[in-house]
């Protein structure tokens, strides 16, 4: 398996523009997570899905952020409108939770977002 | 709420020497999992080692091993025969269960520098 795939790897945009980050989880994994990493706040969980259904979005900073998972192999994180303080590395991770599993989350390479 | 604390923001070690990174956590759950992730300059989050809380035996993966002290809620990582490629940020993490699945809580990270 290719692992978790994220695109783009780098995104530079101007304040006010819409940004869409994409993620393809590992095939067969039924959990998908979106994280944000900044120097000030470290790694923060934004939202996670189970079987394509959003379970907990309490980490989403504000209404400008939205996430969808239309099918088991694709998820998007959208920021509209973007602001400079959204600049961060955004990670997607997936896991397979079964009885007696270790709940290990496997991370994608991240998308480095810069909002000017 | 679950918390994970890494008290060493930065550490350094000479190549070929051994170093131990500290991690403590707080959880009210009986069944949980603990992880160490490595984040090199490439920003990729790489799973280093994992430990099931119900197992008394400390996990080992080649040069990496843990000292799991359940009563003390301590989960330190020992790197033996340090290599230059071990230079990275190291994050300790723990799972917890909410109503629908797993959540991963990260510590603030320890930046490790391996010196030649």
Q: What's this entry about, in short?
A:
Chain A has 116 residues and is mainly β. Chain A has no helices and eleven strands.
- Total E-strand runs of chain A: 11
Distance between the termini of chain B: 41 Å
> Structural class given helices, strands, pairing of chain A?
mainly beta
Oligomerization category of the chains in this entry: heterodimer
| Rough outline of chain A | globular
Q: Tell me the Rg of chain A in angstroms.
A: 14 Å
Helix content of chain A: under 10%
Overall mean pLDDT of chain A stands at 91
- Using only C-alpha atoms, the radius of gyration of chain B works out to 14 Å
Largest sheet data of chain A: 7 strands, mixed
> Number of helix segments of chain A?
0
Structure description:
Chain A has 116 residues and is an all-beta fold. In chain A, 0% of the residues lie in helices and 53% in strands. Chain A has no helices and eleven strands. In chain A, the strands form two sheets. In chain A, strands 2, 4, 5, 6, 9, 10 and 11 form a seven-stranded mixed β-sheet that branches. In chain A, a hairpin with a 2-residue loop joins strand 5 and strand 6. The mean pLDDT of chain B is 90. Chain B is 0% helix and 54% strand. In chain B, the strands form three sheets. In chain B, strands 2, 5, 6, 10, 11 and 12 form a six-stranded mixed β-sheet that branches. Chain B has 116 residues and is mostly beta strands. The interface between A and B is medium-sized, with 23 and 22 residues.
């Amino acid at each position: 398996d290719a692992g978790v795939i994220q695109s783009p790897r780098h995104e530079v945009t101007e304040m006010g523009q819409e940004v869409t980050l994409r993620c393809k989880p590992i095939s067969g994994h039924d959990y998908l997570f979106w994280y944000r990493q900044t120097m000030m706040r470290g790694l923060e969980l934004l939202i996670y899905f189970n079987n394509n259904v959003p379970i907990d979005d309490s980490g989403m900073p504000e209404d400008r952020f939205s996430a969808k998972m239309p099918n088991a192999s694709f998820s998007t994180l959208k920021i509209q409108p973007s602001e400079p303080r959204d600049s961060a590395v955004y990670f997607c991770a997936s896991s397979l939770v079964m009885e007696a599993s270790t709940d290990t989350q496997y991370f994608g390479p991240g998308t480095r977002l810069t909002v000017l | 709420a679950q918390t994970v604390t890494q008290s060493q923001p930065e550490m350094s070690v000479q190549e070929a020497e051994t170093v131990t990174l500290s991690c403590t956590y707080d959880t009210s759950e009986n069944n949980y999992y603990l992880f160490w992730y490595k984040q090199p300059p490439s920003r990729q989050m790489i799973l280093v080692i994992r430990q099931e809380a119900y197992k008394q035996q400390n996990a080992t993966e080649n040069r990496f091993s843990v000292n799991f002290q359940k009563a003390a809620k301590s989960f330190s990582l020992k790197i033996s025969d340090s290599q230059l490629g071990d230079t990275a940020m190291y994050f300790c993490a723990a799972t917890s269960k909410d109503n629908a699945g797993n959540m991963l809580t990260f510590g603030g990270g320890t930046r490790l520098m391996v010196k030649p």
